[in-house]
Amino acid sequence: MSKHIGLNAIEMQYLRLSLGLNTAQVAQITKAEEADVIAWEAGDSQAPELAQKKLLEIDDIIEMQVLNTCDGIEALFKKEPKRQLSFVVYPTQALYVQYNPEFLSSLPFTELYNTAAWRIKKECKLVLEVDISLIPLDVESYKAYREEQGLGESRDNRAKWAATQL
């Protein structure tokens, strides 16, 4: 038995906005036309249930990342007095694709990854009293850091670089 979602126009609009996406990106994700997305948000037509499910699924993926990351941060700081972290975010889709191929199936746009980082930042501040700074990746600075330190490319090394940017 399928559960009917039935998001109304305003809910569709605010779901899109909460994900940090524009109407063209929603159209791409849902395999619809941008005009269809605009019509859904204007209340001129109902968004197909598959489109609603896809957007809600992405929202759930982000929320799971928030929960898992916050749990990891909480464990990290159980005995650690340090209360500040930095996260790398990606200023362009090209950089996001280059450095995060593993996320492309679940979070196809840099905006979704950065939305997850923003939600993690807010959750950590409110619940854990940990300050997280979102650091946009500067490729030249990052490459220079890796070269100086004799490091290869990895998520951990991007995090180490970001910590130097605080």
Q: What is the first-to-last residue Cα distance?
A: 51 Å
Specify the number of helices.
8
The description of the largest β-sheet is: 2 strands, parallel
The helix-and-strand class reads: mainly alpha
What is the overall pLDDT average?
94
Return the string of H and E elements: HHHHEHHEHH
Structural Rg: 18 Å
Describe the strand arrangement of the main beta sheet, using strand numbers. Answer: 1-2
Strand content range: 5-15%
Low-confidence stretches: none
- What best-fitting shape do the alpha-carbon axes yield? globular
Helix content: 55-70%
Total beta strands: 2
List the helices and strands and how they pair.
Layout: H1 9-19, H2 23-30, H3 34-42, H4 49-76, E1 84-89, H5 93-99, H6 110-128, E2 131-136, H7 139-149, H8 155-164
Parallel strand pairs: 1-2
Helix pairs in contact: 1-3, 1-4, 2-3, 4-6
Description:
The model has no long low-confidence stretch (mean pLDDT 94). The chain has a two-stranded parallel ribbon. With 166 residues, the protein is mainly alpha-helical. It is built from eight helices and two strands, in the order ααααβααβαα.
